[in-house]
Amino acid sequence: MKVLVSLLVIFSFVSGAMLIQAQKGTPAEAESLVKKAVAYIKSNGREKAFSEFSNQKSRFVDRDLYIFVYDFNGKCLAHGGNPKLVGKSLIEMQDADGHFFIKDGIDIAKSKGKGWSSYKWTNNVSGKIEDKTAYLEKLENFVVGCGAYK
Q: Which CATH architecture has domain 25-149?
Protein backbone atom coordinates (compact mmCIF):
# COMPACT_ATOMS: atom_id res chain seq x y z
CA MET A 1 0.00 0.00 0.00
CA LYS A 2 2.84 2.41 0.89
CA VAL A 3 4.45 1.71 -2.48
CA LEU A 4 1.20 2.51 -4.28
CA VAL A 5 0.78 5.77 -2.36
CA SER A 6 4.41 6.71 -3.08
CA LEU A 7 3.93 6.01 -6.78
CA LEU A 8 0.76 8.11 -6.85
CA VAL A 9 2.56 11.02 -5.16
CA ILE A 10 5.46 10.80 -7.63
CA PHE A 11 3.02 10.57 -10.55
CA SER A 12 1.18 13.66 -9.29
CA PHE A 13 4.40 15.70 -9.13
CA VAL A 14 5.53 14.57 -12.57
CA SER A 15 2.09 15.19 -14.09
CA GLY A 16 1.94 18.65 -12.52
CA ALA A 17 5.38 19.55 -13.83
CA MET A 18 4.46 18.31 -17.30
CA LEU A 19 1.23 20.33 -17.24
CA ILE A 20 3.08 23.50 -16.27
CA GLN A 21 5.64 22.93 -19.02
CA ALA A 22 2.86 22.27 -21.58
CA GLN A 23 1.41 25.70 -20.76
CA LYS A 24 4.66 27.35 -21.85
CA GLY A 25 5.58 28.02 -25.43
CA THR A 26 9.04 27.09 -26.65
CA PRO A 27 11.63 29.25 -28.41
CA ALA A 28 11.02 27.25 -31.60
CA GLU A 29 7.29 28.00 -31.36
CA ALA A 30 8.05 31.71 -30.76
CA GLU A 31 10.22 31.83 -33.88
CA SER A 32 7.55 30.05 -35.91
CA LEU A 33 4.88 32.51 -34.70
CA VAL A 34 7.04 35.47 -35.76
CA LYS A 35 7.51 33.98 -39.22
CA LYS A 36 3.72 33.51 -39.52
CA ALA A 37 3.18 37.09 -38.34
CA VAL A 38 5.64 38.50 -40.90
CA ALA A 39 3.87 36.55 -43.66
CA TYR A 40 0.51 37.83 -42.38
CA ILE A 41 1.71 41.45 -42.53
CA LYS A 42 2.97 40.96 -46.07
CA SER A 43 -0.31 39.44 -47.26
CA ASN A 44 -2.81 41.55 -45.26
CA GLY A 45 -1.08 44.89 -44.64
CA ARG A 46 0.05 46.58 -41.46
CA GLU A 47 -3.28 47.92 -40.22
CA LYS A 48 -5.13 44.62 -40.35
CA ALA A 49 -2.14 42.66 -39.07
CA PHE A 50 -1.38 44.94 -36.12
CA SER A 51 -5.03 44.89 -35.08
CA GLU A 52 -5.05 41.08 -35.28
CA PHE A 53 -1.82 40.79 -33.28
CA SER A 54 -3.23 42.97 -30.47
CA ASN A 55 -6.40 40.87 -30.25
CA GLN A 56 -5.79 38.54 -27.32
CA LYS A 57 -8.17 35.97 -28.81
CA SER A 58 -6.40 35.83 -32.18
CA ARG A 59 -4.38 32.99 -33.62
CA PHE A 60 -1.27 35.05 -32.81
CA VAL A 61 -1.73 34.50 -29.07
CA ASP A 62 -0.98 30.97 -27.89
CA ARG A 63 -0.66 30.23 -24.16
CA ASP A 64 2.15 32.57 -23.04
CA LEU A 65 3.27 33.31 -26.61
CA TYR A 66 2.13 36.49 -28.34
CA ILE A 67 3.32 38.82 -31.09
CA PHE A 68 4.62 42.30 -30.37
CA VAL A 69 5.70 44.96 -32.86
CA TYR A 70 7.81 48.09 -32.26
CA ASP A 71 8.96 50.77 -34.66
CA PHE A 72 12.62 51.76 -34.64
CA ASN A 73 11.87 54.58 -32.18
CA GLY A 74 10.45 52.12 -29.65
CA LYS A 75 6.78 52.94 -30.21
CA CYS A 76 4.59 49.89 -29.66
CA LEU A 77 2.55 49.19 -32.79
CA ALA A 78 0.98 45.89 -31.66
CA HIS A 79 1.05 43.79 -28.49
CA GLY A 80 -0.83 40.55 -27.96
CA GLY A 81 0.16 40.32 -24.30
CA ASN A 82 -0.97 43.80 -23.30
CA PRO A 83 -2.88 45.82 -25.94
CA LYS A 84 -2.81 48.86 -23.60
CA LEU A 85 0.86 49.31 -24.58
CA VAL A 86 -0.05 50.03 -28.22
CA GLY A 87 0.77 53.59 -29.18
CA LYS A 88 3.17 54.14 -26.29
CA SER A 89 6.88 54.82 -26.55
CA LEU A 90 8.65 52.02 -24.71
CA ILE A 91 12.21 52.74 -25.80
CA GLU A 92 13.29 53.47 -22.19
CA MET A 93 11.60 50.39 -20.74
CA GLN A 94 13.89 48.26 -18.59
CA ASP A 95 13.53 44.75 -17.27
CA ALA A 96 13.97 43.75 -13.61
CA ASP A 97 17.78 43.89 -14.03
CA GLY A 98 17.81 47.35 -15.65
CA HIS A 99 18.35 45.97 -19.17
CA PHE A 100 16.92 48.19 -21.94
CA PHE A 101 15.41 45.25 -23.79
CA ILE A 102 13.37 47.24 -26.32
CA LYS A 103 16.50 49.12 -27.41
CA ASP A 104 18.37 45.82 -27.53
CA GLY A 105 15.72 44.22 -29.73
CA ILE A 106 15.70 47.17 -32.11
CA ASP A 107 19.50 47.09 -32.33
CA ILE A 108 19.46 43.36 -33.12
CA ALA A 109 16.83 43.79 -35.83
CA LYS A 110 18.56 46.79 -37.41
CA SER A 111 22.06 45.31 -37.37
CA LYS A 112 21.37 41.62 -38.10
CA GLY A 113 17.86 41.55 -39.58
CA LYS A 114 16.82 38.88 -37.06
CA GLY A 115 18.02 37.30 -33.85
CA TRP A 116 17.41 36.58 -30.19
CA SER A 117 17.33 38.83 -27.12
CA SER A 118 17.13 37.73 -23.48
CA TYR A 119 15.52 39.68 -20.63
CA LYS A 120 13.17 39.32 -17.67
CA TRP A 121 9.47 39.94 -18.08
CA THR A 122 6.25 39.29 -16.20
CA ASN A 123 4.64 36.10 -17.46
CA ASN A 124 0.98 36.80 -18.29
CA VAL A 125 0.07 33.23 -17.28
CA SER A 126 1.99 32.88 -13.98
CA GLY A 127 2.08 36.57 -13.02
CA LYS A 128 5.76 36.17 -12.03
CA ILE A 129 8.88 37.83 -13.44
CA GLU A 130 10.71 35.16 -15.42
CA ASP A 131 13.67 34.82 -17.75
CA LYS A 132 12.54 35.20 -21.34
CA THR A 133 14.14 34.96 -24.75
CA ALA A 134 12.56 36.68 -27.75
CA TYR A 135 12.98 35.99 -31.43
CA LEU A 136 12.94 39.21 -33.45
CA GLU A 137 12.74 39.98 -37.16
CA LYS A 138 13.09 43.26 -38.97
CA LEU A 139 10.39 44.07 -41.50
CA GLU A 140 10.56 47.43 -43.24
CA ASN A 141 11.08 49.95 -40.42
CA PHE A 142 9.80 47.91 -37.50
CA VAL A 143 10.55 44.84 -35.39
CA VAL A 144 8.23 41.82 -35.11
CA GLY A 145 8.88 39.63 -32.10
CA CYS A 146 7.67 36.87 -29.83
CA GLY A 147 9.24 35.66 -26.61
CA ALA A 148 9.30 32.35 -24.78
CA TYR A 149 9.87 31.96 -21.08
CA LYS A 150 12.84 29.82 -20.11
A: 2-Layer Sandwich (3.30)
